[in-house]
Amino acid sequence: MTLSALFRVRRRHAAGEGFDRRLIPPMILGSILNPINSSMLAVALIPIGRDFGASPSATAWLITGLYLATAVGQPVIGRLVDSFGPRLLYLTGTALVGVAGLIGVLAPELWVLIISRVLLGLGTSAAYPASMFLLRSESERTGLRSPSGVLAALSISNQVVSVLGPPLGGLLVGAGGWHLIFAVNVPLSAACLVLGALFLPRASALGADLSAARSERIDIAGMALFAGTLTAFMLFLMDPEVARWPLLAVFAAVGAAFAVRELRTASPFLDLRVLAGNLPLLATYVRQFLAFVTSYAFMFGFTQWLEEGRALSPSAAGLVLLPMSAAAILVTAVTGRRAEVRGKLLAGSLVQVAGTALILLIGPGTPIWALVVIATIIGVPQGLNGLANQNALYAQADPARMGSSAGLLRTFMYLGALAASAANAAFYRHGATTAGLHDLAWLLVGVSALFLVVTLADRSLLRVGRLDEAPSR
Questions:
Q1: Phi/psi of residue 144, nearest 5 degrees
Q2: pLDDT value at residue 264
Q3: Is the pTM of this model over 0.90?
Q4: Which residues of 219-258 are buried (b: 16+ CB within 10 A; e: fewer)?
Q5: Nearest CA among 461, 468, 460 for reference residue 385
C-alpha cells in the first residue's frame, strides 16, 4: 500500500467510515433466492409428476434445468456485473425471478414448468456476483479489511434457507398445492426490487470501479462457447453412460474452440492467461469442487441409505440429518468473523476425512444415536470449508473481475453437485445398499484426502486474512 493510500485509510478510520449496512438486506435476500428454489422443490416432485402424468426421469429435469442455468449463468452474469455494475444486473435478475414464478404458477405442461426453472436459475444467478462486487467496492471505498462478518452472514443465510426449504415447501404444497412454491417467488422478487432500487448504488457512483471493465468489449462469442462447453460436460455428468460419451467429444471440441477464442481476443470473457497465472484462485476452485462432491454425495447418498438400507421413514431420515445442518450453521456463526482461512480449511479437511471414514463402520444395525453423531461430524467441515473458500476467493480474485470470479466459484459448486449425483447413481445401481454406501465412503475418503493435500500445498493461504487493511492491487 502506498503512503498516500495509507493516509486515506487513516482519514477514513478517523472519520468513522465503514461498510454501508443498507446494502446487507438486498444482498442477503437476493442470495437466498437460489437455495430456497433448490430446496423447496424436493417435496414437490411427486405431486408435480402426478398432476402432469410424468415419470421421475422427466420431473428430474426440474432440478437439472435450474442447476444447468445457474452453473452457466453465474460467471456470465458476473462478468456483466463487472462491466455494468451490480444494480442493473441485480434488479434485472430478481425481476426475472418474479416472471419465472408466474410462469410456473400458470404452467399448463411440464415443459413450460421446466422453462420456468431455467429462468429461475438465470434470475437467481445475479445476486451473489453482485454482492461480492459490492463488498469489494465497499472495502476499497472505506479502506477497511475483508468484511468477514458480512461474508459469514451470506453463508449462514444460505445454509439456514437450505435447511428450512423442504419444510417450507411441504407447508406450501399442503396449503395450496405445488403451484405455491413457484408463487412465493413473486413477493420475494418484489421485495428484492424495492430494496435494490432503494439501496444499491447506481453505476455513476462506481465510475472508478467500472471504468476499466467498461473499456473492454463484451466477449459474447466467448460466453456462448463457455456455455456450450459447460452444458455438454454437465449433461454427461448427469448420466455418464457409454451412450452419452459423444457429449465428451462435444465438450472437448467446443472447449478447444473456447480456449482458442479466449487466448486470441483482446478482451476475453475469461482471461485464461491471467487465470492460469493465479494459482491460489485455481486452488480455491478445486477445493470448492472437492468440498461439494463430498457434501452433496453424503447428503443424498446417506439419506437414501437411511431410507432403504436402514429402513427409516423419510421424516425420520430428515431428523437424523438435521444436526448436520445445525452443526454447519453453528460453526459458520462462531468462526465467521475471522478472516483467516488456512486454519479453517485444515480443520475442515481433517474432520472431513475422519467423518467420511466413519461411514465405513455403518451397518443396518447401527444405532440411531451413532448415525446422528456421524451426520453432526460431517456438518462441521461443511460450515468451515464453504465459508473459507468464499473468503479466499474474495482475497485472491482480481477486483476488476470480482463478479465473474465469484460466479465461477458457484459454477464449481454445481459441478461438484453433479459429480456427486453421478457417484451416487454409480454406487447405488442396485439400490441404496450398505455395500454401496461403503463403496461411496471410500470415494469420499479419497476426495477428502485430496482436499487436505490441496490445502496443505497452497502456502498462499497463510496470507489470506492476515492484513489489517484492504489489499492494494
A1: -85, 165
A2: 86
A3: no
A4: beebbebbbbbbbbbbbbbbebeeeeeebeebbeebbeeb
A5: 461
Q: How far apart are CA 442 and CA 248, in angstroms?
A: 26
On the question of pLDDT at 238 being above 80, the answer is no
- Of 330, 318, 291, 327, residue with least CA distance to 452: 291
What is the C-alpha separation between 222 and 113, in angstroms, rounded?
Answer: 29
CA pair distance 338, 444, nearest whole angstrom: 28
- Nine-digit cell at 271? 482471461
| pLDDT tier for residue 89 given thresholds of 50, 70 and 90 | very high
Here the cell at position 59 is: 420431473
What phi and psi values does residue 469 have, to the nearest 5 degrees? -115, 165
Higher pLDDT, 371 or 430: 371
Q: Is the pLDDT of residue 452 over 80?
A: yes
pLDDT of residue 17: 54
Query: What's phi and psi for 304, nearest 5 deg?
Result: -60, -40
* 21-64: pLDDT as tens digits: 888 899 999 988 988 888 788 777 778 888 998 887 788 788 87
Burial 358-383 (b: 16+ CB within 10 A, else e): bbeebeeeeeeeebbebbbbbbbbbb
User: How does DSSP assign 405-438, residue by residue?
Assistant: HHHHHHHHHHHHHHHHHHHHHHHTTT-S-HHHHH
What are the C-alpha distances in Å from 229 to residues 191, 254, 310, 345, 392?
A: 35, 5, 40, 30, 26
Q: Which three cell numbers stand for residue 14?
A: 478517523
d(CA 329, CA 383): 6
Q: How many CB atoms lie within 10 A of CB 317?
A: 19
Q: Where are any strands of DSSP class E within 317-456?
A: none
> What pLDDT band is residue 14 in, cutting at 50, 70 and 90?
very low
Least confident of 342-356, 361-375, 412-426, 435-449: 412-426
Amino acid at 61: W
Alpha-carbon Rg for the chain, nearest whole angstrom, is 22
Q: What is the pLDDT of residue 216?
A: 61
Q: Supply angle C-alpha 21, 23, 25, rounded to 5.
A: 95
d(CA 242, CA 99): 38
Task: Report how far residue 236's alpha carbon sits from residue 191's, in angstroms, rounded to the nearest whole number.
Answer: 37
Give one DSSP letter per residue of 256-318, joined into a string: HHHHHHHHHSSS-SS-HHHHHH-HHHHHHHHHHHHHHHHHHHHHHHHHHHHHHTS---HHHHH
